[in-house]
Amino acid sequence: MTKGSNVALSALSEDVGSVIVSLGWVSPTGEGDADVSVLLLDTNGKVRSDADFYFYNNPVAADGSVQLLGKTPTEDGNEDRICFDLTAVPPEVDRIVVAASRYGEARFGELDALRVRLADAAGESLLRFAIDDAGEVSAIIFGEVYRRGEEWKFRAVGQGYDTGLAGLATDFGVDIDDDAAEVEAAQAGAEDPGAETLSGAVSEPASGCQSPSPGEQQTTVTAVEAPAGGSSSDQPDPAAPATTPGTLEAIPAPRRPESAETEPTRQPAVRASRPRTAKKKVTLPKVTRTSLAENDSWRPARLFPVSALKSDRERETRATSVLLAVMAQVPRFGRRLTAAFGAPSGRMETFTEVSLPHGDTPRRPDGVIRIERAGKLWTALVETKTNGNPLKADQVQAYMDIAARRGYEAVITVSNDVALEGSPLVDIKIDRRRKHKVALWHLSWAEVAYQAQLLIRHEGVGNAARTWLLEELLQYLQHENSGCHGFQNMGSAWVPVRNGISDETLCQGDPRSLEVIESWERLIRQVCLRLGGELGQKVLPVQRARRGTDHGTRRIQLADQLCLEGRLQAELRVEQAPGVLTIGADLRTGKLRTSVEIPAPEQGYPLSWAKRLVRRLAEAPADLHVETLLEGETGGPRGTLERLRPEPADLLPKNTATPISGFRLSLFKGMGSSRGNTESGFIRSVDEAVHRFYTTVVVHLDQPAPRRAAPKEPART
């Protein structure tokens, strides 16, 4: 679409009762990002109330009409997706504005490839609008969905604002409360080390896009910011299960800047009656519980036992039943998984081992999900696999055919594999002559665990029994006998490629190197999910491909680079981290390197920078490598933290006139020799390396300051 143009959604698809709008951009540095927001406007072009403003501190509408789904990694950056159930939009709403904003002094002119995409309930892309002239603005209206009579239309807008999210919202009638001093005071009061409750204002309705069930409380996860609409305070359930032995412990929050480390006077948390555009602060509860077991050999009873599972069929049957049962009983969790597939919000029921006719032999999909809303049914067939078992194309094809004939909306596959864009897990044929379209979606077990972790540890579901159900589900998924561990095998090409690199016999163009690149990409996406679940923050892989490069071409280029250099490398962007995290695997030396580059402060002296950095890293591992980055030069001063602690001045270059651009912090460890997820496996070594680096190094660093936009050059006459 072009700027200012519009189109009726019904002219693009017959299935637009539920649509997904995706906003995307590319950051050349890998660090830039933006946040989406939605405003529901009446015929006067204003919100009916502050509750019609949806953004990161108010991501879900109670009536299910709007749900911010968060970011999804793509090949050239990431997309921020929003689910709209147009059948649930109140009749008084005439227009839905979709916008995005940047933080602080950042501007959209620093990002590339700004675009908005709209897809129907089957996941088929219907339209795309690219913004090429963003300029020095901090907020942009990408587009709007509006009514014309009985149908919905989309207009490509591309209008910029230089007053940020608060200014944009105020123009549409939202009453913004964004007093920075008040927010800081409230945050200081929320950071009391002795606090053991999640208190503050309401963050999100209790059931995702779905209206809260009768009697269900709304969970609170912030101590500062919240939209209008009431508040509550829940204490953690003292009977809640403790952290599962053998799993990664919770990651501490990043330290506050040095200027805020002195203990302030405690003030009561500010109760907001208006939406705050400052980001919400998530405070984890501190639950301590003494076990009543006589010794460590006693194991607590579990709702979903795994000891009796003997075969893959039993694992698949148990995993399907456990997952679907918890989805139906914990509405917010079920909605979180199905909203991304275009499902409406409504009453959900799930079934297993259903028999459906298919030729001479009935088919028995592993499960069925049905959602009822306003007398209409949305149905998805579910096919699951556990352990390393791959999805079978003929099975999935049969379920697609059955769904098409019976008027079902989707087929959902669940396995340990991670789907990649442009590389489907199974090849199926779609009969274009059929009027009814069926969407094929994939969900990895790692994604299921990630969503459960977010709700349990960071957002809550507002009900102790439902929290316990999610805890039991997560415990089941993480058990070694469940078969739901996520991606855990680098494939048959891993050992030959590693040996070929070691003895320098691997040639460019070898198809096995491309298999390794695809497996590495799947592993990195899973690492992002696991770290993001622990942090409760967005963790996304950074793709640095040229604009317009297709998926296959990019992977072939990386495979050739692997043959030449013998290294695998990836970058992760963690929200609130001071820089992009880099993870590299050198197949020649068998070493893993995790690192982060932090920029030099804008003020002060180099010696004070070095001293401050070493002081910040007082609790970091002694074998941490610290390297000074010099402008225009390579190979600056470096050393281990153990050696630099008594002499921080060793980080300064001998030529004091050489400007310091920043510092690189790195940890090294040996990588696993096998291709799997065993104690000596490569996959586990990568997981542990990223986890150790973040928990022992990154959390001690300052959060990044907002980047200032580069000044415009004066126009030449």
Structural class computed from helices and strand pairing: alpha+beta
* Sheet with the most strands, sense and barrel status: 7 strands, antiparallel
- Strand fraction band? 15-25%
H/I helix tally: 13
Strand order of the largest sheet: 17-18-19-20-23-21-22
Poorly predicted regions are 180-250, 253-272, 706-717
Average pLDDT figure: 80
The gyration radius over C-alpha positions equals 26 Å
Q: What gap, in angstroms, lies between the N and C termini? A: 34 Å
Structural shape: globular
Estimated helix fraction: 10-25%
| Total DSSP E strands | 23
Descriptive notes:
This protein is α+β, with helices and mostly antiparallel strands and 717 residues long. A 7-stranded antiparallel beta sheet has the order 17-18-19-20-23-21-22. Helix 6 runs parallel beside helix 9 and helix 9 crosses helix 10. The longest helix is centred in the C-terminal third of the chain and has 25 residues. The radius of gyration is 26 Å and the shape is globular.
Quick structural summary:
Helices cover 23% and strands 23% of the residues. The chain has helices at residues 164-171, 180-190, 312-329, 331-338, 393-406, 445-459, 464-478, 494-502, 511-535, 551-565, 606-616, 641-644, 682-696; strands spanning 6-8, 18-26, 35-41, 53-54, 66-74, 77-85, 95-101, 112-119, 125-131, 139-148, 151-161, 347-352, 367-373, 376-384, 410-415, 439-444, 539-542, 567-574, 581-586, 591-599, 625-630, 638-640, 660-670.
